[in-house]
Design brief:
The protein has 165 residues and is an alpha/beta fold. The protein folds into 2 domains: 61 residues, no CATH class; 84 residues, UDP-galactose 4-epimerase, domain 1. The chain contains 4 helices and 8 strands. A two-stranded parallel sheet has the order 1-6. The chain has a two-stranded parallel ribbon with strand order 2-5. A two-stranded parallel ribbon has the order 3-8. The two termini are 13 Å apart. The model has no long low-confidence stretch (mean pLDDT 89).
Length: 165
């Protein structure tokens, strides 16, 4: 359920998330044990997009690990169709909902966090910050938006849910 605020119960569903949570606990313990430390942890939601120059973006050499490169690969004909994992969620269209954040907004979040740490008297100890939009977008909504903006139809098929989704 979105939005997820910084005070929400922390949990994870996969080894990657578990490692991030362990590191967050270590940083929090460090800040509590030694007041000389001021730490901000940035909790990314689902980064998507590319730099407006078009020179930096999502075009992985290997298997993509998020949705947007798959959509792009279908758009350019590298893949024949998009697999959408699950269409039986309790959402507006039955597909998974995520909080997608543009990479430029994510970069601005980093700059804001660094500027905050540089402020005089910024004795904050440990500060977790969620970097997301607070708005959920379904997989089908993202596919539709991509199609509308690009003018490129994205063929898709539904597949079984993935573990952890």
């Amino acid at each position: 359920k979105l939005p997820i605020d910084e005070g929400s119960k922390r949990s994870c569903t996969n080894p990657y998330g578990q490692r991030k949570l362990v590191v967050e606990h270590i940083l929090e313990d460090l800040a509590v044990s030694d007041s000389d430390w001021n730490l901000i942890t940035l909790r990314y939601f689902n980064p998507v997009g590319a730099h407006s120059s078009g020179q930096i973006g999502e075009d992985p050499n290997d298997i993509p690990n998020n949705l947007m490169p798959y959509i792009s690969q279908v758009a350019v004909g590298k893949l024949s169709q998009l697999n959408i994992f699950g269409n039986d969620y309790a959402t507006i269209d039955g597909t998974g909902v995520r909080d997608f954040i543009h990479v430029t907004d994510l970069a601005q979040g980093h700059v804001a966090a660094l500027n905050y740490l540089e402020q005089p008297n910024s004795a904050l100890g440990f500060l977790p910050i969620n970097l997301g939009t607070g708005t959920g977008t379904s997989v089908l909504e993202l596919v539709t938006a991509f199609s509308e903006v690009s003018g490129q139809k994205i063929p898709y098929q539904f597949a079984d849910r993935r573990a952890g989704d």
